[in-house]
Give the backbone structure.
Amino acid sequence: MVPLLLLPLLWEGSLQQQRGYEYELRVQDSVTVHEGLCVHVPCSFFYPWSSWYSPRNLYTYWYQDRDNTDCDSPVASSNPRKPVKSETENRFIFADPKTQDCSLYIRDARRSDTGRYFFQVEIGNSVKHSYREKKLNLQVTGKTDKPHIQILEPLESGRRTQLACSLPGACEGGRPLTFSWAGAAVDLLDPQTRRFSVLTFTPRPQDHGTNLTCQVKREWPHLTSQRTIRLNVSYAPGNLTIGISYRNHPAKAFKNLQTTLLTILEGEALRLLCVANSNPPAELSWFRGSPGLNATPISSTAILELPRVGPAQEGEFTCQARHPLGSHSVSLSLSVVYPPQLLGPSCSWEDQDLHCSCSSMAQPAPSLRWRLGAGLLEGNQSNASHVVTSISEGPWTNSSLSLRPVLNEGLKLSCEAWNVHGTQSASVLLLPGRGLLGGRRCPRAGVVPAALGGAGALALLSLCLCLLSFCRVKACRRQAAGRPKVRNDEDPVMGTVTWGSQEKLGPDRPPEQAPPSKDGPPSGEQQELYYANLSFYEMKTQEPQNPEATGSPEYSEIKRAG
């Protein structure tokens, strides 16, 4: 019977050795609070459990370290019949006095509150325990922290958002605080709406990188504190611009293009710079023409290099800026200009008239005109001696000339093309007709390009010199042989030949060789007789001063007598 009575006592003693069944206080050692602000001190306590204890009779207290619990008032009390000190009344408050929570809520802290505090628990009239082995050290300072600004969601241009400003230690029931906002992003707001701890506004692209300040004020004890942040606003690309730079100038030499059309001279080196204002930076690419859905860019950087611009580069170039918030593009139309490129002139005889044509390509389209000698043959008009017709289509201009055979000897016929970027001309030389070249008859239409004629004349000149040397050696071996004469007694006929080009011989050419002279060798030696007839072209850079100069021999020919 006795062992059964001792069992509850042994059980209670074993519980006291376990956590929660002995006196224990859990609270931080030191807490700092700014003067006039609030602080929450978390705390929990434990005491030996007994079936005789009732929660309704449990009371808790906080005392200053120097207080006597029998005669001094606590700074905080959960017992309505035990008042607290007047200087801490309504400022030191238990968070939840009905539980084993000894957390202390201190508001409107004062410098005089600085000190050490201990906790006491009271259960009915049988238990009263002070936890002096674990004390709270409270420090009240006059230095105030800066307010905190919290961005509740990322800032995007055009999307309404909120920012919260709070002061560490501020609490309800404390001394009133006044919040105000300042910055370029909120200057347009009504001042009455800026005096809140939560700011609601709609950011704009121009707000990116600007400062926003939250200021906190309190009249007594005097407090002024503020914090400034720099706004990071995301926005899609806008105001795309294209900069241009010629040759190999540095990037700082780029100049913004004020129009969507750029005219450039052929052969120039061009650099195009695409600038997109966005945050974060957009991905820039260049396309030829309009970028399609799966188009491949010709450049994946902001700069497009065109080392040598030509007609093949003429057309539209587009810069595209891709961004998570949207994509935009800007286009440039490139127009390439260049000086005239001349084709012709080419001439032919039809009936008794000389017909010539000349074409030229340029950008802008060139103008064509004809010159006969020093005289100008006016375009798109006719008179008794000539008819000129010119037409233009796109970069091409074509002109035709019909000329009556009222020509002087050795006149130069020129076709000239020009525009604002340059001039080019080409000429043909009109020669007095047949038998001009070494006694041969010249065709009425004999127009050979100047470059081919010059090259042919040089080749013939070299060949004729060699053959001449050979013939002279043979002539010395035949001293009795006489050189036959070649007559040039045909009637002249007007012919044409380009400057420095070789004249073509027609079917009405004179005989290949002339009869031997009266003092020739005997007939027995006639089979071994050789002779040479030489004539040469000369490259002319201007009209000859002596008309007979144009009739000088210009090619060579060697024949063997049978």
About this structure: Residues 1-20, 434-455, 479-562 have pLDDT under 50 and may be disordered.
